[in-house]
Specification:
This protein is an alpha/beta fold. It contains eight helices and 14 strands.
Length: 220
């Protein structure tokens, strides 16, 4: 199974998470020195990080930003906050998912499984408008130039590319990203699509993704 790092300051919850994951066959490593959390995330060899937002002396979102400078390891934010702004910020900083407490253990395990599944998904190299598309590396390349996408951005782009010229509904994208039929805030999807559209525009594909209101998105 997978090695999962838990960054949670509540000792009871941390223990519960460890037992839950280990019962499923995962290997867990828990962080207790939060001043060194950023370094430990990078050196732990973890395949997934469960990261609380509210930590003693440090902000989980700041840790996520620091991690994303050097690593694309999947991160699921765990928080008791219910503000949509926190969710939007977390996703914009590179979180792969966002779960509020208290959470249903079964749902949490499904979300963890979905994130791990899509992070390991490899697809064959394709092309778009003369760009080489490498989903395994999350890269679109044009000669010496490379556009690096996050896992979520790459999955969105790949699904749109697989359905080039056809509207891909928001439900289809949400299912592909989170492998779940449960409600996911539209904010999470909108943030990822917005970031992808901006990156493509900066790379010379300003009109690549068109929004079809109340329907979905289409790659032109």
């Amino acid at each position: 199974m997978s090695r999962i790092m838990i960054i949670e300051d509540d000792e009871v919850l941390r223990g519960e998470l460890s037992r839950l994951l280990e019962d499923q066959g995962h290997d867990t490593v828990a962080v207790t020195d939060f001043s060194r959390a950023a370094k430990q995330m990078c050196s732990s060899g973890a395949e997934l990080v469960l990261l609380d937002i509210n930590l003693p002396g440090v902000n989980g979102e700041a840790l996520l930003q620091e991690l994303r400078k050097t690593s694309d390891v999947p991160v699921i934010m765990l928080t008791s906050r219910t503000s949509e702004l926190d969710e939007v910020l977390s996703m914009s900083y590179g979180a792969d998912d966002y779960i509020t407490k208290p959470y249903n253990p079964t749902i949490l395990l499904l979300r963890i499984s979905a994130v791990l599944k899509r992070s390991q998904r490899l697809r064959a190299t394709a092309s778009y408008r003369g760009l080489r598309v490498d989903p395994a590396k999350g890269i679109l390349a044009d000669g010496a130039r490379e556009l690096v996408l996050t896992k979520n951005e790459m999955l969105i782009f790949q699904l749109l590319l697989d359905n080039l010229g056809r509207i891909v509904t928001r439900d289809e994208l949400i299912t592909a990203l989170w492998d779940s039929n449960e409600f996911i805030s539209d904010n999470a999807l909108s943030v990822n699509v917005s970031r992808l559209r901006s990156k493509l525009s900066d790379f010379g594909c300003a009109d690549a993704i068109e929004t079809r209101k109340k329907q979905g998105y289409i790659l032109l």
